[in-house]
Amino acid sequence: MTPEGNPLDGSPLENIAPLENISPVDSTPPTGSASQVGSAPQAGSVSAFRSTIPAGTLVDLTVPERPLLDVRDAEVAYGAVTALRGISLRVDPGEVVALLGANGAGKTTTLRMISGLLPPARGSVWFDGARLAGTGSGTGLGGTGTGGGTSGHSGTSGHSGTSGNCGTSGHCGAGAWSDGTRDSPGLPVHRVAALGISHVPEGRRIFPAMTVAEDLAMGAYTDRRRAWSRAGREARREARRDVRRGLDRVHALFPRLAERDRQPAGTLSGGEQQMLAIGRALMARPRLVLLDEPSLGLAPKLVATIFEVIEEINADGVTVLLVEQNAAAALRIAHRGYVLDTGQVALAGSADELARDPRVRDAYLGSPSDSDAVAP
Ligand SMILES: Nc1ncnc2c1ncn2[C@@H]1O[C@H](COP(=O)(O)OP(=O)(O)OP(=O)(O)O)[C@@H](O)[C@H]1O
């Protein structure tokens, strides 16, 4: 997989910014069995996705070999605190991409921006060529965007402010630009989800009073399915069959969830709740899953299970952007990775290159012998 068109994705490993500020974070030894980084599976049908693009969404048709996710020069601030300082990264169809970095580097903020929870103050976020948020030009397909025909990674138009601390409950960007315009605040969370991006946030935000089955069913309730349910009896039947297939797949990945079907989600163990959070995200049949610290707080055996499941999900054709403190385990299953440092991309490269890089080894992989176990 050789992504083109992004200066961050060169090979050999590119040094984007100095790493002096990176301090060691998690030297947990690798868990689970080592696995080779395999070739990425093919992505799903683009035409199927095209039919889900909301009218008026700006679509960039000018980038050859378009990435599935393209974050361009994005800046995000929480009030006076600038968390992302011009981040550019891309995820190609079928990849697992690891996002590493010290505490406070901006990993969670990056995921929240992509899923529509936070608006970029500068830069833009694109999904399979469709602009999700921010400013920047492209080729308009619905007529209401600001596009003018060029793409690339610049594309700002003077927005300099943000909406402050946006919380976790929903999109906070609409109409919130400091210069008073309503230009391109971004799609709200439910529209981003309907396009095929599922976000599993840190801390397993499940619905504790619901049963496992009800919680999973919530994941299947997207705009796309709502549209089907309005479309007639046969479409409703197909939607139900689609939910059933999704549930069967989740149960196959996590047999424990099938056993706990009627149990209130709040009574599950921490590991089971993480399974439920990932399972719920998969119920939406995403093309891209954003995973925020899926192994956090889990016992080593469960950590291994979670990483095996991520590989299985990816083998099914789902693209994954993975935020992890367990860098060794993340780089074992990732194709590529980025290292963030104080809101900027400090390093980018293939997983093997990152695992071998002395700065990554020192900061994130613990002792040289630990990292030797990761590098093939
Ligand atoms: N709601 C908020 N209000 C103000 N500042 C915030 C808020 N959330 C995050 N920040 C700040 O933004 C920066 C990036 O935080 P973020 O959570 O994205 O980092 P991270 O890399 O995910 O860290 P960790 O690994 O500890 O989860 C940090 O300096 C943090 O203090």
TrEMBL record:
Indicate what this protein is called per its UniProt record. Answer: ABC transporter ATP-binding protein
CDD domains, per this entry?
ABC_TM1139_LivF_branched (cd03224)
Tell me the GO BP annotations in alphabetical order.
L-amino acid transport
Q: Does the keyword Transport apply?
A: yes
Q: Where is the composition biased (Polar residues)?
A: 24-41
Q: Does the keyword ATP-binding apply?
A: yes
Bias class Low complexity marks the residues at 153-165
Note down the stretches annotated as region Disordered. 1-41, 137-165
Q: Domain named ABC transporter: which ranges? A: 69-367
